[in-house]
Specification:
Chloramphenicol Acetyltransferase, eight-stranded mixed β-sheet, six-stranded mixed β-sheet, 17 strands, 22% strand, CAT-like_dom_sf, transferase, acyltransferase activity, Bahd acyltransferase dcr
Length: 473
């Protein structure tokens, strides 16, 4: 793992050193063909997500050594991340599992405290410096590492940020890697969730995605003025919202959540429900708490954007297709297995109907996205192979990514759970929303909301929305 010392300052962050980390064992995995879910991501930025921690009791020098060793060992379980992209003479793109290595960056920002990361209304700009591969397009994985880890030492904490090529992983695969990295750092004897690298599903296609000679570019304006804020919703607030959406009398006790809990479990391929439990899930017409939250945001942002009633709005939700296919993909399938479901409704309909109606539109589309629909999406792409058009092209779009089900706070590297989750500048545009679990668990949710300054100002004044935000009611 050759290292080079650095003293380059970038705003609030100073880069100390940069290393190449190689897997501790050589890969035995063959080249992996990119799927119809991977290929569209060649035009989007690397995923940038990370965890903020309190400072460990041991020295930073020891921490850096520990994480380098743990990363090397973790890569033996995730050989594709240590490889590079390769396009063959027929235009097919592969991950070459060639052990070329990943970047490891050590940086300091000892003038920044934990409170300077989480204590502001808007996410401060210096958080963007905690991540490598800033605004790097995934196609560049032909020439650059597919993964980079940056460890930034703060005055009273540590931030561990990862940047991973989006044509190689989706959120499920990303957090499985991050969780495993943390497990290995805690010296577990056997990792909990071994990734599956099989490539024998309908997502593997003979269709060729034709790309420009210099590769694709992102499809949104990376320099547009934006505000980014984390809105937190407690379990109690989420349950109040869900009860209102379903026209129920709100009673904050353990029973109100049992049907939804089973519904969530029924969508988790790692959890097996009994026939009786499945029947209870299928017999209910309840709108989920997350769909209620999405509808709440959709209404508030539509109001803030001040559209005429005839303006068509779009709410996109990324869904995991692993359990929707027949036969199902392995729940730990490594790669992208996501599709983006759009729901179209006029601004007038969004605002003239109640919360239940808006949530019901989302609910219907998510429920309808079954095996047949997943395959139709694949067939449609094969007829017209293209990169994913990420952005807000008509000013009336919202795009929901990530998931409050991802085990982000399970990343204990040996001295405690994260204090907060933050992301970098990657794939941020007006209307991009990311859902995180709340740190307190129990069904709490954090929404990372990116909007134009004018729209964010309007959202913050929206009484229907803000009454559910923690600390705002």
């Amino acid at each position: 793992m050759p290292c080079s010392a650095m003293s380059k300052a970038s705003g609030a962050v100073t880069l100390v050193s940069k290393c190449t980390i190689f897997p501790s064992k050589k890969s035995s995995i063959p080249d992996l063909k990119l799927s119809v879910s991977d290929l569209p991501m060649l035009s989007v930025h690397y995923i940038q997500k990370g965890c903020l921690f309190t400072r460990p009791s041991f020295s930073i020098t020891h921490l850096i050594s520990l994480l380098k060793l743990s990363l090397s060992q973790t890569l033996t379980h995730f050989p594709p991340l240590a490889g590079r992209l390769l396009t063959d003479q027929d235009g097919y793109v592969y991950i070459s599992c060639n052990d070329a290595g990943v970047d490891f960056v050590h940086a300091t920002a000892t003038n920044i405290f934990i409170r300077d990361v989480i204590g502001f209304l808007d996410v401060p700009d210096h958080v963007k410096e905690f991540f490598p591969f800033d605004r790097t397009v995934s196609y560049q994985g032909h020439f650059s590492p597919l993964l980079a880890v940056q460890v930034t030492e703060l005055a009273d904490g540590v931030f561990i940020g990862c940047a991973v090529n989006h044509s190689v992983t989706d959120g499920t695969s990303f957090w499985n890697f991050f969780n495993t990295f943390a497990e290995v750092s805690r010296s577990v004897k056997r990792i909990t969730r071994q990734p599956n690298f099989t490539r024998n599903s309908i997502f593997i296609s003979n269709a060729v995605l034709k790309l420009p000679a210099n590769g694709p570019e992102v499809t949104f304006n990376v320099d547009a003025p934006l505000r980014e804020r984390i809105f937190s919703f407690s379990r109690e607030s989420i349950q109040r919202l869900k009860a209102k959406t379903n026209n129920q009398k709100w009673n904050f006790d353990e029973e109100i959540n049992i049907v939804e809990l089973m519904a969530k479990q029924s969508n988790d391929p790692l959890i097996q429900l009994s026939r009786t439990e499945k029947a209870a899930v299928n017999s209910t017409a309840e709108i989920s708490s997350f769909q209620s939250l999405c509808a709440l945001l959709w209404r508030a942002v539509t109001r803030a954007r001040k559209f005429p009633s005839s303006k068509m709005t779009t709410f996109r939700m990324a869904v995991n297709c692993r359990h929707r296919l027949q036969s199902k993909l392995d729940p730990l399938y490594f790669g992208n297995a996501i599709q983006s479901i759009p729901t179209y409704t006029s601004a007038g309909d969004v605002l003239s109907h109640d919360l239940h109606w808006c949530a019901e539109q989302l609910n219907k589309n998510v429920k309808a996205h079954d095996n047949v629909m997943v395959r139709k999406f694949v067939e449609d792409w094969e007829k017209d192979p293209r990169c994913f058009p990420l952005g807000n092209f008509d000013g009336a779009m919202l795009t929901m990514g990530s998931s409050p089900r991802f085990p982000m706070y399970d990343n204990d590297f040996g001295w405690g759970r994260p204090v907060a989750i933050r992301s970098g500048r990657a794939n941020k545009f007006d209307g991009k929303i990311s859902a995180f679990p709340g740190r307190e668990g129990g069904g709490s949710v954090d929404l990372e909301v990116v909007l134009s300054p004018e729209t964010m100002n309007g959202l913050e004044l929206d009484t229907e929305f803000m009454q559910y935000v923690s600390g705002e009611y």
